Amino acid sequence: MNILIACYSRTGFTEKLADQIAQNLTSRGHVVKREVLDVVTKKNCWNLLFRQIHQYPLVGLSLVSSSFYKWWANIYHQPEEEIQPPVFPDVSGFDHICIGGPKWAYTSYPVARYLKQIKGFHHKPVSAFATFGGPPLKVFELGFIFTPMKRHIEKAGGTLVSKMGLSSNYHELHLIWIFRLFSRIALRRPLQSFTVDSDYGKLKLKSFCDQIEQKIPPQGPQKNW
């Protein structure tokens, strides 16, 4: 099976997860190609924060109102970032597409631009993966990244069939201590227990790759890539 893994990683944590996915799928006999997404101009973390900080009060409201969250997650304005030309601008020749990136409140700006400009998503099974600072909370981490990604993928013509989110145990604005404290107090587990190297992460990785295999159509003629 021909699988494309397209990934943007600002600090290397999402790239590490993409590497693990690629190794797992390759070990199962699949042909895996990589698309390393990169921005035209790398901006500092404060510039990225200020582009979306006005929406943060609505993030808080989403946490206390499920009805508002469902509405807001599907209509909020998604910032984008100009990216370098992809190696595979048309993904129609692949059987399955995996797309990953870090969580920047919602979808990271380069991934949003990639989903907007890439061709060949129609009728394709797509899987999404992400890393974020905190533990995999249902709404604040998993919901805020995968709900909009699902919307972007479907708008491009694809179908989201599996998703995986793991903690990077890192925050570029040095706020990771908040997430570590919350994980200890609320979940009674260290934040490291939700990373790619943890038992939790390894189980999630296996399940993610299992779902990818279940959604890939029977293999047709081999293509020369």
Write up this protein:
By secondary structure, the protein is an alpha/beta fold. Helices cover 41% and strands 19% of the residues. The protein has helices spanning 13-27, 45-50, 56-64, 66-72, 109-117, 138-156, 176-187, 199-214, and strands at residues 2-8, 31-37, 96-104, 106-107, 125-132, 159-167. Strands 1, 2, 3, 4, 5 and 6 form a six-stranded mixed β-sheet that branches. α1 links the parallel β1 (2-8) and β2 (31-37). The longest helix is centred in the middle third of the chain and has 19 residues, at 138-156. The chain is globular, with a radius of gyration of 17 Å. The relative contact order is 0.17.
SSE-based structural type: alpha/beta
End-to-end C-alpha gap: 12 Å
Q: How many β-strand runs? A: 6
* Rg, Å, rounded: 17 Å
Question: What is this entry, summarized?
Answer:
With 225 residues, the protein is α/β, with parallel strands linked by helices. Helix content is 41%, strand content 19%.
Question: What features would you highlight for this structure?
Answer:
6-stranded mixed β-sheet; alpha/beta; single chain; disordered C terminus; 6 strands; 8 helices; 225 residues
Could you outline the blueprint of secondary structure elements for this entry?
Elements: E1 2-8, H1 13-27, E2 31-37, H2 45-50, H3 56-64, H4 66-72, E3 96-104, E4 106-107, H5 109-117, E5 125-132, H6 138-156, E6 159-167, H7 176-187, H8 199-214
Parallel strand pairs: 1-2, 1-3, 3-5, 5-6
Antiparallel strand pairs: 3-4
Helix pairs in contact: 3-4
